[in-house]
Structures are given as structure tokens and as C-alpha cells.
Amino acid sequence: MKSSGLHSEALERYSRQINLPEIGEHGQRLLKKAAVLIVGLGGLGSSAAFYLAAAGVGRLGLMDHDMVQPTNLNRQILYSVEVLGQPKAIAAKDSIKAFNPHIVLETYTHPFSTENGPEICDNYDLVIDATDNFNSKYLINDLCAALKKPDIYGTASGFEGRITVLSFKQGPCLRCLFPEPAKSSQESNPVLGTVTGVIGSLQANEAVKIILGIGDVLNDRLVTFNAKTTTFTEYTIAKNQNCPICK
Ligand SMILES: [Zn+2]
To answer: Most exposed: 27, 44, 89, 119, by fewest CB within 10 Å?
Structure first.
């Protein structure tokens, strides 16, 4: 153990990012102390979870009530054919543990709800919304707005993905942008795996920036990614002063 509180193994493992002046050993300690809840362990959650574990975020909450199915494997890189039929949260834990054994992993195999959400969210610094349906997204939004926890929102459908950061500093919540959930569910929509990879990685990127207190967080912008044209488009977003959830 060095005086920085980081083991020599950690200093080596994370050296390529510790050597960034914006991070250093202080930043690595901030990452180690941080706790992130990932709701939804599909395509978005897979890449977000791997990159947060790779960065050395000390504690990850892994939440999903589904089992691993063959149709998941075009994008959900946490899983292999050996874990088909297993609960995703448990299979994800095994996969991340093999990749980085120094991370504390907590699993939740039940759906996120208004009953269990407050207690679970309270244990984490921020939430990554990697769910694939609007009901869950509004549930996570309303809770994060009430608890004042950053909600890193992502979607992926077809060849397009979206990302923004909600309920962070003076930024809006989801209901400021879209007061009610869209009628159609995204669940089972066709999607290109790389789109979930790009958006999930960007969600992890926003989490790392918030933990480290660096860069410009996406709390006043919504960014879309078009995989066909490889273009990112940015939209300015703002709080609705009459929003019933976050005003
Ligand atoms: Zn709002």
C-alpha cells in the first residue's frame, strides 16, 4: 500500500489514466470511493458496466430481473453462451469479477419499483439508466429528481442512440423534456449492437466525469448518434420551470 491509499497493483493497473494530470492518484481514489447503480444489464448496461469496472469505480450495483437469452448476444457483451438461462445480474457479476476482482459488486434480480427504488438509489452516488422501456425510465427519472441523484439516460434503437444527463446541478429531468412516456415500448425493437456499445460507453464516460468533477457534463444537452452516417447531433435542453417533478 502506498501513502495514496492505492495498492501498488492498482497504481499499475490504472497507471495509464493516473498519468493524466486531470486524474492523478487523487482522481483514482475518487473513483475507488464512488458507487454507481446500473439499472438494466442489456446492451447499454454491458458496455457501461465494463468501462466503469475498467476505470476502477469501487462499487457497482447491477440490477436486472431478466435471464440471458440467445437474442441478447448480438450486443450484450457481458454474457457468453455458457450463461444462457442464468439471471443477468448474477452472470454480469461473474463476468465483471473475472475482469476486475477489486470491484465490490451488488446484485439485484428484481425489477426497479417505487417501493424498492428509494432505498436502493440512496446507496449510490449516481444512476445509469440502461433500461429499454419508457415506464422504467420515468420511474428512474422521478426518483432521481426527488433524491437529487444524477440520472445518466441512454437509449438505443435501430441505428440511432441518445444520451443525456438528467437531474444534475441546474439541469432538467426527463419530464421537463417529455412530460409523459411515449406509448410505444422500445423493448424487443431491432437494434445494431454497436449503437448500444457507443451509447453505453458514453454513459460510463459521463459517470467518470461527474465522479472526477472534470469536463462539461451533458446536463444541458441531449446528444444523438446516427450509426449509418456516423454523426453526433447536439440539442440544447433546459429545465421546465413548471415541471411537476423537478421545479
Ligand atoms: Zn423536470
So the answer is: 119
